[in-house]
């Protein structure tokens, strides 16, 4: 597996791949929530200054991606206050590459890059319907910080905040 920075010309492909990866959750949430999620994961937030868009390749093909937002960036486009630590967003693995360690490799890369910058904390948001993501983040040692939770579609689905002290 090769982990590298995404090229500008790969952004559209990555955003489409995210929708494909997240679409498995569409039946677990309301139509309104799915539309809000789809809009968030396909937005241009990953092109903000300072954001590192990282991809995983297997056999020369992009099979996963993640965006690492620097501290004090608008990672959630006005929904969450700017945070004083790095934020992992938009972690996605193509369905055919699941179970091959892609998500763990991308998560580890984000943690390592954050450590290299001397930043002592990294965070992320996820929801209970993303069961495999929740399990992975717990395995990595992320802890809940409910003061940064939010409810994007006013449908009872809470996007939960987590952080890891490095």
Describe the structure.
A seven-stranded mixed beta sheet has the order 1-2-3-4-5-7-6. A hairpin with a 2-residue loop joins β2 and β3. It has one domain: Aminopeptidase (3-Layer(aba) Sandwich). The model has no long low-confidence stretch (mean pLDDT 93). Helices cover 29% and strands 25% of the residues. By secondary structure, the chain is α+β, with helices and mostly antiparallel strands.
**Strands across the major sheet, in which order?**
1-2-3-4-5-7-6
How much of the sequence lies in strands comes to 25-35%
Architecture, CATH level 2?
3-Layer(aba) Sandwich
Q: Compute the CA-based radius of gyration.
A: 15 Å
| Structural class by helix and strand composition | alpha+beta
Mean pLDDT, as a whole number? 93
Question: Which bin fits the share of residues in helices?
Answer: 25-40%
| Number of helices, counting only DSSP H or I runs of 4 residues or more | 4
Tally the beta strands: 7
Give the CATH superfamily.
Answer: Gcn5-related N-acetyltransferase (GNAT)
């Amino acid at each position: 597996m090769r982990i590298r920075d995404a090229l500008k010309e790969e952004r559209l492909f990555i955003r489409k791949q995210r929708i494909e990866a997240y679409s498995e959750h569409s039946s677990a949430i309301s139509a309104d929530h799915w539309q809000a999620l789809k809009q968030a994961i396909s937005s241009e937030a990953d092109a903000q200054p300072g954001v590192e868009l990282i991809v995983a390749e297997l056999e020369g093909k992009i099979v996963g991606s993640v965006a690492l937002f620097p501290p004090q960036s608008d990672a959630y486009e006005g929904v969450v206050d700017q945070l004083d630590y790095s934020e992992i967003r938009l972690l996605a693995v193509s369905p055919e590459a699941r179970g091959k360690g892609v998500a763990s490799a991308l998560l580890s890369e984000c943690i390592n890059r954050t450590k290299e910058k001397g930043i002592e904390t990294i965070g992320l948001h996820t929801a209970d319907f993303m069961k495999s993501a929740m399990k992975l983040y717990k395995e990595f040692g992320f802890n809940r910080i409910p003061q940064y939770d939010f409810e994007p579609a006013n449908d009872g689905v809470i996007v939960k905040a987590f952080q890891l002290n490095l």
